[in-house]
Each structure stands twice: as C-alpha cells, then as structure tokens.
Amino acid sequence: MARRHMGSIYSYLQRMAPLSMRVEAYGCPDGLNAVNENSNSLFLTIGPGDFLVHHAIALGLHTTTLILVKGALDARGSKLMPDKKDFGYSFPCDGPGRGGTCDISAWDAFYLAVFWMLNTIGWVTFYWHWKHITLWQGNVSQFNESSTYLMGWLRDYLWLNSSQLINGYNPFGMNSLSVWAWMFLFGHLVWATGFMFLISWRGYWQELIETLAWAHERTPLANLIRWRDKPVALSIVQARLVGLAHFSVGYIFTYAAFLIASTSGKFG
Predict the structure, then answer these.
(1) Largest alpha-carbon pair distance within the chain?
(2) Contact 242, 224 (CB under 8 A)
(3) 3-state class of 138 per DSSP?
(4) With contact defined as beta carbons under 8 Å apart, do 109 and 242 qualify?
(5) Residue predicted with more confidence, 83 or 227
C-alpha cells in the first residue's frame, strides 16, 4: 500500500516538474533545443511553398481515394456498360464509333489511381528532399523563394542538383557517382518506353502489324516464310498494364538515382 502511495506521489511530481526536466527524464536530451533551433527538421517554420505543397499532397490523397472508391463501388454505373459487356473484356477504346467504353471499369480506376499515387509520392519526396538539402546547407531561403512557382522546382531543385549526377561519367573519366549516372539514364529509358504503350492505342499497333504482314506476304523470297496465325497487337488492358509497369519502375529508378547521387554528391 505504501509503495503504491509513493508511486502516485512520484507520478504527481513528474507531472508538476518543469518541461525541461521531464524531457530529460524520458531520455530526450536537448529536446527543447531541438524544438527551438532552426537547424533541424523537427519543427520548421513554413512559408508559401510549404502551403502549396501541403495542399498538393492533400489533393493527391483525396483524388487517389476518390478514384479507387468510385472504381470499387460504381464501376458499372455508366450507361455505356452494356456496350462494354457485349464487346467482351478486351473492349475497344477508339471513341464512340467503337463503343467508347475504355474508362469505366474497375481496372481503369485502379490504373488511373496508380498514376495519382505516384504523383502524390513524387510531391512528398520532392518536397522533403529539397527542403532538407537547403536546410543542411544553411540556405533555406532558396526553398522559400523558389518553391512557389514551377520553374523554381525545375531550375533550383531538379536541374541544379542533377549536375553532379550527370557528370558522374563523362569524356574525362568517371567518379563514385558513375553507377548512379547510368542508373539515371536507364531509368529514363524505361520510363519513356512506357509512353509507347500508354499513348499508342490498339488500332495503331494493329494497323502497323497488318501493314508489315501485308508487305511481307507480297515480297519475293520473304513470302516463302508465313505465319500460321495472324499476329495480334496487345489489347488495351495489356498495353496499359505494360505501360504502367514501365512508367512506375522507370520513375522509381530515375528518382532513386537522383536522390542518392544529389545528396551524397553534396554531403559525401
């Protein structure tokens, strides 16, 4: 009983103790200094750029959620759904003349939501990285001044911090960032290839394949070799999946190389 009474007295004294003593007691040395100083990232003063980014992140989160909820609960709510059902799963996507039902399925909602998810992740990582690079360099004013317009992000964050990465491998030799320079280029290649699948729809590729097959069958000697089956282009669903995979993987590789090289290039 006495031990319990002493414990309650101790907890009361802990609550009544000054904040600095309680912070130290709970194993957080220099905790108050971390709150009050401007050279760390625990509590930072925010400005117009932070305000814009916070709202952009909120937009991305809400839009991603809305698309997923719509796709999960009401993907079949479109009046075009009967046309899609009649055309089958590999539905056409070439406008009203061929159904016009390319963006009303749960798969399309997921596909679109992944792009918005990547957008949101990009805004978060760009913001955190640039803010901390300027903080660690003691030049927070650069972020505060340049983060309020798009060209500031391109010039003072992406382009300025890419210089060391791009020079990791050049005609004069290479340095420790060369592997990240190659990864940066490889990521761009993978990312850009995705647009070949995302933008050029089935009709384009199918027409190209049929043109090549027609020319092959009418070319002497070459027409001795024939296909048993007619070549068929990827369906819309397949092409979107391949394009989405390229876009996502390329984005991750590109930004990871930039993130590592730009940070280590400045701070070792």
Answers:
(1) 105
(2) no
(3) coil
(4) no
(5) 227
Euclidean distance between CA atoms 217 and 222, whole angstroms: 7
Question: Which residues are paired to 154 by β-bridges?
Answer: none
pTM greater than the 0.90 cutoff:
no
> Cα 9–12–18 angle (5° rounding)?
130
Q: How far apart are CA 268 and CA 266, in angstroms?
A: 6
Amino acid at 39: S
Tens-place pLDDT, residues 44-83: 778 899 999 999 999 999 999 998 988 888 776 666 666 6
**Is 6's pLDDT higher than 60?**
no
Q: Classify residue 149 by its DSSP letter.
A: S
Give the C-alpha separation, 175 to 177, whole Å. 5
Helical spans, DSSP H, in the chain: 2-16, 19-25, 31-36, 48-74, 81-87, 106-136, 140-146, 150-152, 160-166, 178-199, 202-217, 236-267
Using alpha carbons, select from 241, 200, 201 the residue that is nearest to residue 108.
241
Task: Please work out, in degrees rounded to the nearest 5, the angle formed at the alpha carbon of residue 151 by the alpha carbons of 260 and 253.
Answer: 25
Evaluate whether 257 touches 165 at the Cβ level (below 8 Å).
Answer: yes
Amino acid identity, position 62:
H
Q: How far apart are the first and last CA of the chain?
A: 59
Name residue 232's amino acid: V
Rg (CA), the chain: 28
Distance, C-alpha 161 to centroid of its chain:
19
